[in-house]
Here is the input.
Amino acid sequence: MRPSPDPSAIYALINTRNISWCTTALDTTASSLRHNYVTRVHGRCICSVIDTELAAQPSTSSISQPSLWHARRDVRRIIFGTWALVAGYVVWGAVIFHSTGPGLGGGAQADGSVRVVLAWWVWYPVIATTQGSLTLVLHFAEVVVSSLRDEATWREAAGARGPWLSSNPVRNVFSSWTSVFLLAAKPFLHWMFSLCCDMALIQGDYTQSESEAVTNMHWYLSMGATQIWNLSIALDLFAALLTLLARQRPQGPQPATYGHIQTLANLVDEWPADGAERLWWGHKGSYTVVGSGFESGGESAKWYHAGTSGRPLPPVRIEGLYA
Here is the structure.
């Protein structure tokens, strides 16, 4: 029997206006500007993603940028949740390690695991909670990795080659080692979880108590403390690397965006003409403002402008005021 398509999914696909199928932040920003979902704010050519709440004013560039940990609250929550799951798995392994009595219906086995005889409505929530938490953590880790990949792409704009405005999504994933790492970590950690639990239908080859033998067919759930702790170690290494990557600060005066659409819209003042496939960011000249009132006592002030172009640009001036 062939599964029937979900009518709600078909309805959403037909009636939802999709402005872009591309997964890169630059292409999404261009499409959002084209369809008036966002509007560029002038005077913020040197403002990073952490400056979104500050008023636009001339400022100097910085030699280093804020980390993803500092810039995104949701990233901090994701990493805290990953570490919390590591601690939860350690506690889970400790509970299994000390569950050696017959109270759980099975007891300790020769391989160090604990066999637990439970009804399906008991073991199903156990598996759903333990494996579901791992699935959610790995899914949320995609937010961290995608933000780092978007930032790496944007920072190419200050280099010699410049990033591609539109590119193949598959190439985007496999050209980023963090994306490849996450792609490999997901099945590996789920495989390690599969080693922690084993289910089978058996007939009473064990005792419920010292005087009562179990002769009926039962589902048993076998959980090994050693395997659970091995999973905890692997997840601990995963969380440590994720934390290290999130706390790294990009170097250079180019403002950090981490895929934030409005920040990119403010920084990109010129999109390449049709036919140009790359984008560069840098110094675009200076202009004099008379009576600015900003650290000049109402006298004239020389400000610089940073922006983008379809051709390479010189680097920005660290000591200059950009607006």
User: Anything to note?
Assistant: Residues 68-247 form one domain. DSSP finds nine helices and eight strands in the chain. Residues 120-155 form the longest helix (36 residues). The mean pLDDT is 82.
